Amino acid sequence: MQASATELAQHVAEGLQRTPKTLSSMYFYDDAGSRLFQQIMELPEYYPTRAEFSIFREHGPAIAAALHPEGAGEFALVELGAGDGAKTKLLLRELLQANTEFIYAPVDISAGAMTGLVEALGRELPALRVVPVVSDYATALTQLPTRPGSKAVLFLGSNIGNFHPADRRDFLRKLAAPLAPTDRLLIGFDLQKDPRRIRAAYDDAQGVTAAFNLNLLTRLNRELGADFDLSQWEHYTDYSPLNGAVRSYLVSTCAQKVHIEALEETIDFAAWEIIHTENSYKFTLPQIEALAAEVGLRVVASFTDAAGDFADVVLAAQDE
């Protein structure tokens, strides 16, 4: 097996021994998963993408200014989890129109998504200097301190909400550690709102979110030689207003055994047993400020859409 398949096999071996059984949402994003997520972003129930688009359209010049303090010189705009870059293109156009000296370094784990992004940028923004990085976040984070000049790191689309609270703090500390005084972070946070709207965004009427979740089993069948029968699994999600957490699961609809060739193991599943696949936490603005302070960051600027559904928050290292 290739290294990536070895890592996936190790993750599955560990995750399916836990109680409850757990798999990471980072493995959603093979090429098929990335295509399905593009469809999710266009669903009527899925408000976060539209909300963040509206923020970039309305506040583009102010966001660009906040990311590149006056006198900071040339900088690298690094985007973790770039996807198709649709929202980021609005910011890239602002920077190009202002004759800002910068390079754009999109990071994505999906080679297919990266190829599509680089080709699209070449057509739409030919003056843009692009340095693509096909990598996971952990590897990309280790490379940030090696880049010359100042940098602005983007982490959009409420991806920060996918981390467990302890992992979130650890991730943000790693982002904060290499920041120079003129460096900036821009992180998208989905805000708490009507619980029914939040739940619908993760369990749409067309079933695209269900297909996205179930695609994880298809990936295990293809890459690890597993024999999951998708007709015996269902997507389920819930939302708790108490802690702001959406939790997504794959549910076994019957007692069954699944053989995973790469592990040389057969896993037993009881009827209605779950595999926990994703968390998606929602935040309040005071929670965001408190989180920033806890990990050595400060809020420089905060931009929200008109409905208050979403916030893009610019952060910097705390003053010495």
UniProtKB/TrEMBL annotation:
GO terms for biological process: methylation. It holds the Pfam family Methyltransf_33. Residues 9-315 form the Histidine-specific methyltransferase SAM-dependent domain. One of its GO terms (molecular function) is methyltransferase activity. The keyword Methyltransferase applies. Keywords: Methyltransferase, Transferase. InterPro entries: EgtD, EgtD_Methyltrsf_superfamily, MeTrfase_dom, MeTrfase_EgtD-like, SAM-dependent_MTases_sf. PANTHER family: ERGOTHIONEINE BIOSYNTHESIS PROTEIN 1. This is Dimethylhistidine N-methyltransferase. It comes from Hymenobacter arizonensis.
